[in-house]
Write a structure and sequence with these properties.
The protein has about 250 residues and is α/β, with parallel strands linked by helices. It is about 45% helix and about 20% strand. A five-stranded mixed beta sheet has the order 3-2-1-4-5. It has a five-stranded mixed beta sheet with strand order 8-7-6-9-10, with helices on both faces. A hairpin with a 5-residue loop joins strand 7 and strand 8.
């Protein structure tokens, strides 16, 4: 059986197709969401084969309406994907483009408790992308740049507009831009760790989502948490993997 999972995020669309019989990945694709996410979903699905498709992510309703596929929440998808990659995991932190999710898992991978920040861009990939633009650099370089900065500066606000104002004020005072960038990253980490502590204070932690590719966030997170931090080789594919696993489980149940 070929089980497909597609994760339609605010910045990227991810597709994973699994062969349940051979327990292997058949298809692995990723592309930008663009201004027309449905068309991009159809493009990334073109040429792929599957017996059952499950969609997740904020755009899952678009694919469900067009193709009649099943859906799964992002919380469930990241829990399933993380547990598959690291069976011993007890916590998942997913920082995506538009929201942050802290998830506590039971031993069998079921979701015990979760907390989600989806009301504003604070502490998300969009926040970092917006701030990187203020430093006139792509977000892919922002983490490495921030690692060059020294500790000591503080950004108090997590509101995107006010945080930018604080950063601008620190620049006007002659502070090192890299140190300001580091302070912005620290603010994201502290907000995320606060969510984690309310949901799952102990146990191995998997860091998923596109922001897990940011070297500065990863390093600062390691300093803040008391447990080991596990970062998948493809952290932004965890949700799509979880959706494909859900398809396998749904097929077995039928």
């Amino acid at each position: 059986m070929l089980a497909a999972g597609i994760d339609i995020g605010s910045r990227t669309i991810k597709l994973v197709v699994l062969d349940s019989d051979a327990d292997r990945t058949v298809t692995f694709r990723k592309s930008e969401t663009t201004y027309n996410p449905l068309d991009e979903c159809l493009r990334i699905l073109d040429g792929s084969r599957w017996d059952l498709l499950i969609a997740t992510g904020y755009g899952r309703g678009l694919v469900q309406k067009r193709l009649g596929c099943g859906t799964i929440t992002e919380i469930q998808a990241h829990a399933l994907g993380a547990h598959k990659l690291f069976p011993e995991v007890r916590s998942v932190l997913d920082i995506g483009g538009q929201d942050t999710k802290a998830i506590s898992l039971a031993e069998d991978g079921r979701v015990r408790k979760f907390e989600m920040n989806d009301r504003c861009a604070a502490g998300t990939g969009k926040f970092l992308e917006f701030m990187a633009a203020g430093f006139q650099m792509p977000v892919e370089r922002f983490g490495s740049f921030a690692l060059q900065g020294k500790e000591g500066l503080t950004i108090n606000s997590m509101c995107t507009v006010f945080a930018e104002s604080e950063a601008t004020s620190l620049m006007a005072q002659g502070n090192d831009p890299a140190a300001i960038a580091r302070a912005l990253h620290v603010s994201v980490v502290k907000r995320s760790v606060s969510m984690l502590k309310r949901v799952s204070p102990n146990g191995l932690l998997v860091f998923s989502g596109g922001v897990a590719r940011n070297r500065c966030i990863v390093e600062l997170m390691k300093q803040e948490i008391s447990s080991d931090l596990l970062v998948p080789e493809e952290p932004d594919m965890v949700g799509a993997l979880g959706a494909a696993l859900h398809a396998i489980g749904r097929s077995a149940a039928e």
